[in-house]
Amino acid sequence: MDRSRSRNRDPEVLVAGETLIDFLPAASGPLSSVEGFDRRPGGAPANVAVALARLEEPPLFWTRVGDDPFGRYLRDALAEYGVVGRFVELDSDAKTSLAFVTHDEDGDREFSFYRDGMADTRLEPGRVDDATLAACEWVHAGGVALSSGRSHEATLDLLERASEAGCTVSFDPNRRPELWPGDETFRSVLGDALAHVDVLKATDDELEALGFEGESVTALAREARAAGPDAVFVTRGSDGAIAVTADGTASHPGYDPDIVDTTGAGDAFVAGTILGLREGRDLRKTLAFANAVGAAATTAVGAMAALPDRESVVSMGDGDVNANANGNPHDER
């Protein structure tokens, strides 16, 4: 593969959603007991965009941050990671959102958000023009943008227009209960989004919160497919992931990395899924690749800083990871 050509071609993937500051704790434990934090760039869609850039598929990214020191820091960080900044907006009338992260002893995390009225809730419909969507093959968004403000309408508008333009649309509910007034609202709003979604990535807990029922994870995924998506990918932590499509079901057990921080692992999995499908891998090889990207992202602190390059993903994975649909090494495509 000619990697310089990959970097220089027009982006074929558009990611949309929040960029914010993650304050990572100096020690595990509840927020009330943490005495120090490190500032890191974050936000699930931002992590997906950076992960794609790290994996040699730099996307367009539509986001909105405050025209303040944090916002300018995030804009510059995205540019340094190789994300195409044509739709990175600075808002002079709102501040940049903040999220304080806490970890338990296993590295699992919880978030406390400070984003009411902040810049990422103020995306405006139509800012991504029709010509841009016509040139894109894939559009990805997440559920946080749907939880409040004008970004709710703007994100639904983008998903609908992307679907009408023939883009493959992927979506991650990224459920954060503290951002929603209740499960009924979450279920109703995301139900509107799923009508335009081709590829859904979720956890089993998220599928249940969306109102789907089933005696197994596979049954849950099949129920979710009936709501609109062509493919449903379900991440299961240390148990790997499954995928369900009209052609059948695939699974992959995942990997066993030395976990330091799980922040951004699901976003890394999303990027791996997008690339796996775009590169023509079958379901199981896509799961293997996505699991390897997600696992590699847990081996360092922070979301963006831990996102792996191709070499790190290959070293984490198995024979399926460094192969395209024909079983050939990636660099021979």
From TrEMBL:
It comes from the Archaea. Keywords: ATP-binding, Kinase, Nucleotide-binding, Transferase. SUPFAM superfamilies: Ribokinase-like. CDD domains: bac_FRK (cd01167). GO terms for molecular function: ATP binding; kinase activity. Residues 12-309 form the Carbohydrate kinase PfkB domain. Residues 317-333 have a biased composition (Low complexity). Residues 314-333 are annotated as: Disordered. Pfam families: PfkB. The keyword Transferase applies. Belongs to the carbohydrate kinase PfkB family. This is Fructokinase. It comes from Halobiforma nitratireducens JCM 10879.
